[in-house]
Amino acid sequence: MMLIKQTTIICALGIMFTVAADAAPISTNTALPVAKGEYVFREQIIFNQSGDDPSTLDRDHQVSVSASVLGYGVMPDLALFGVLPIVYKRLELPTAGVTRQAGGVGDARIFARYTLFQQDAPGQTFRIAPFLGVELPTGENTKRDALGRLPMSVQPGSGSWDPFGGVILTYQTRDFEIDMLASYQANTEASNFEFGDVARLDGSLQYRLWPRELSEDTSAFVYGVTEFNLIHQEKNQVLNVSNPNSGGTTVFGLIGLQYVNKRQIFEVALQAPLVQDLNGTALERDYILRGSVRVNF
Amino acid sequence: MNHTKFARFFRRTFLPLVVGVVLVASTNVWAGTTHRIGVDGLACPFCAYGVEKQLMSIPGVKSVKVTVKSGTVIVTMQDGAKLSRGRAGQAVKDAGFSMRSFK
Fold it and tell me: Can you give the CATH number for the domain in which A238 is found?
């Protein structure tokens, strides 16, 4: 079982900040508005594959997430968001002939975003919006199978209340959009386990591929999307002792395609690690697939 | 003016004149007015829906057409309804954008 406990994937990262319900980024957030009294809904399917094991265990870890996001415009400057993930996690240890898996509701997230600065001009806008929220312990963190309690990398939830906050910068024109996001999540302890805190720097560029020229009747865009995510996670702690095979720094790159009309956004993306500097024998990420639909109503 | 001449005058001149005046008057008074609103910050179709919905929620608004290319919104009012600059500006602001012009 010690071998299984050494599986210290940054499991929370798969669904972190997949919360943008407005137009724009795929793996991060935007400062674009949610109109007062209006709702924006997003359903995102995410598949994480991790199988590049620096240890001799040949571990293979998969996380599938269906994340439902609802945004509501309280005021033109203030929007509230809620994220409810349904997760399925599977860990294979072929050398030991063991597969462990669990599914269910993951940890929900709620947060508020306030537009602190807004500069509008014809066909363009620049906004700065800080946000603050908390990840709730809605997912189970004590699931068991025939072998005993599942490792935390397989549990649907963390069991902890984890506050997070950050700031988003968005510059949008009719031709392209740039979003930058800096954030920090302070993970807390639950059931003698604490995920390491997470610091992130995300960037997104969406470039209008179609139509090349706008007309008076243009009502839909197709964007090409490229993003990066610099993610650093501190080591996890078990019984207040740091796990040397956990945490580290990863830089992801993402390419995607996005169809945007007045009421919906459809998008697909492939995200892959460009740089992984993980601690010890932490399992490395192979790729992440994302598909999403957003609806304005 | 004898009776025959009066009848001819009534039929050929007075009646068409009255009908014409009524038609012109009704066009000016009852036809829905149209406003052209310039919106700053509007740059994609998804955001345009918020502007459209906020303006459509104003009583008396018949239709709204948002053009992303020019950042303009054409608002057509129902017969007899009026839209003030202040009310239009508030709707644009509630959508998260800024009103540039109102005509």
Answer: 2.40.128.130
Which of B44, B67, B68 should be substituted to probe chain A, the one whose Cβ sees the most A Cβ atoms within 10 Å?
A: B44
Question: Which residues from B are below 8 Å from A25, CB to CB?
Answer: none
Grade residue A2 by pLDDT with cuts at 50, 70 and 90. Answer: very low
In the predicted structure, residue A75 carries a pLDDT above the cut 80 = yes
Q: How far is B62 from chain A (nearest CA, A)?
A: 19
Tokens of A140: 């189970």
Q: How far is B65 from chain A (nearest CA, A)?
A: 10
- Residue A181 tokens, joined: 């996001």
Are the C-beta atoms of A246 and B100 separated by less than 8 Å? no
Q: DSSP per residue over A214-235, as a string? A: --TT--EEEEEEEEEEEEEEPP
Closest chain A residue to B49 measured between Cα atoms?
A: A262
Write the DSSP assignment of A24-55 as a string of letters.
Answer: S-SSS-------BT-EEEEEEEEEEEEEE-SS
How far apart (Å, rounded) are the C-alpha atoms in residues A211 and A233?
40
Q: So what's the pLDDT on residue A229? A: 97
Share above pLDDT 70 across residues of chain A, in percent, rounded to a whole number: 92
> Which residues in chain A (112-151) have CB-CB distances under 8 A to chain B?
115, 118, 120-125
| Chain B residues inside the 8 Å CB shell of A216 | 67, 69-70
- Give the integer Cα–Cα distance in Å for A104 and A87: 6
Q: Is the pLDDT of residue A146 over 50?
A: yes
Are B49 and A262 in contact (CB < 8 Å)?
yes
Which residue, chain included where needed, has tokens 């997760």?
A87
The band of B12, judged by pLDDT with boundaries at 50, 70 and 90, is confident
A210: domain range?
Answer: 2-296
